[in-house]
Amino acid sequence: MPNTIKVRSAAWRISLWGTVAFAFGTMLVFVFLHNFVANDIRQRSDAWLSGEIEVLGDVAERTPKDALYDRVVKEVAELAAKEVPNKPKAGDSLNDSVFFLQTGDDGAMRLWVGNGTSGAAVAAIRKASIVPDVPTDLQVSGFAIPFRVASSRIADGSRIYLGLSERDELQILRSLRLRFTLLWLLIVILGFVIVFYSTRRTLRHVREITDAASRIGESDLSTRVPTTALNDEVAQLALTLNRMLDRIESAMHQLHTITDSLAHDLRSPLTAIRAKLEQSLSAETGGDHIEPIVSAVDELDRLTDFLNKSLDVAEAKADALRLTRRRIDLDELLRVMTDLYEPCMSEKGLRLQLASSGPAFISADAELMHRMIANLLDNELKHLPASRTVAMSLRAEGGEASLVIADDGPGFASDITLHLFERRVKGSHSNGRGLGLAFVEAVVRAHGGAVTASNRREGGAQLTITLPLTIAGQPEAQVVK
């Protein structure tokens, strides 16, 4: 049976989950590195602030409080601004990221070095609680980026503040994040491609083995799955499957030998007995011996049919039924069977109807399909009361041929509805051997189809058989198993 199930490649899932795990892991590493770099920059900034505030405090204490005081302290503050850490070389002005503020013991502003006016900085400092010698974040009105501020108290009671904008620090971190994101995306995409390519290449060998094994299972057991020169797990899988196929082929050969010998050993005496009975029947000119001989011949025919069906069902259950496939029209076969059985049906008072949507070509063993349909119609002849109707309908759609055989008889017995396709299961009023539907199921299964049986709501039994339509260009004849 052709593999009509659409299989989704596992390469996508493996590559996707592998890439997600790698991306998540690298992101965690980056977060750790980002925090490490940010803390390092913050420590360097705090160290610079602590060192410079100490120098500025010492200068402010030692410089006489005369007319040159403001000028000296401003120059020292501006010199300190030139040594700002993490500041790009191509900056704007020297003091755009640093301010120096000195307040008196009453909190009034005494000295300001920086861009703009001191009002916003003084207001922010008054609102914040800045501990001396401990750098603190300070948000100054009019500035989107906060300042890192260190303070110190000098001997005259005044306080000095040195603020360093976090702009350069954030710019460095932003540049780091951007570069990492681009590199991260590149590595993730490259990793996905590499994992997908290698996984797809490995799984392609597995898919080839699967396809080959599927073809071997449904055609013949003489071919083997492809192997690779690499001594890896896939190669070991192929070798193991080939060894298993060797054992299966040997077992199937033994099964065929046994069934052929059994069939020959049983058919030969049965045929000989039947020939002798027919000879005796021809020699008889009358009397009471004719009817027992005819009955014995009929019993031998039923016994031969039982033997053939039993062997076919046993081989089909073992997936060893030998088929000679060719392209046949199921519609034409049903019309031939209808013409063949219609006189018998009419003689018993039954009506046989056929409704078909047109040709339905399947790849099947013509003899087995003929026997299967004949078996179903024989069952209707045996078990259906007179004045009933047997309706057969055939349609081809969705790559399948669907055959429905329904009647308006008594239907299946309720005690066997769950075991209809099992061997030797039959109704209490049946005089058969319980192989009819088991034989039908075996033939349909060997051809890659499915069969269901149930009772109709309006009364009667219904059997539905689906078989795959043949593929255009398929060889006309094909011996299977």
Keywords:
481 residues, alpha+beta, Beta-Lactamase, 5-stranded antiparallel sheet, 5-stranded mixed sheet, 13 strands, rod-shaped
What's the rounded overall pLDDT mean? 78
Order of strands across the main sheet: 2-1-5-4-3
Identify the CATH architecture of the largest domain. 2-Layer Sandwich
Round the Cα radius of gyration to an integer and report it: 47 Å
Which class of the largest domain in CATH terms? Alpha Beta
- By secondary-structure content and strand pairing, the structural class works out as alpha+beta
Strand percentage lies at 15-25%
Give the termini separation: 13 Å
Into which percent range does the helicity of residues fall? 40-55%
pLDDT < 50 stretches: 1-7, 90-94, 475-481
Domain tally: 3
Query: What is the total tally of β strands?
Result: 13
Order of helices and strands: HHEEHEEEHHHEHEEHEEHEEE
The CATH topology label of the largest domain is Beta-Lactamase
CATH-assigned homologous superfamily of the largest domain: PAS domain
Q: Could you give the topology of this structure?
A:
Blueprint: H1 10-62, H2 69-81, E1 98-103, E2 109-113, H3 119-127, E3 136-138, E4 147-153, E5 159-165, H4 167-218, H5 233-283, H6 290-317, E6 323-329, H7 330-347, E7 351-356, E8 361-365, H8 366-383, E9 389-397, E10 400-407, H9 436-446, E11 450-455, E12 461-468, E13 477-480
Parallel strand pairs: 7-9
Antiparallel strand pairs: 1-2, 1-5, 3-4, 4-5, 6-8, 6-13, 9-10, 10-12, 11-12
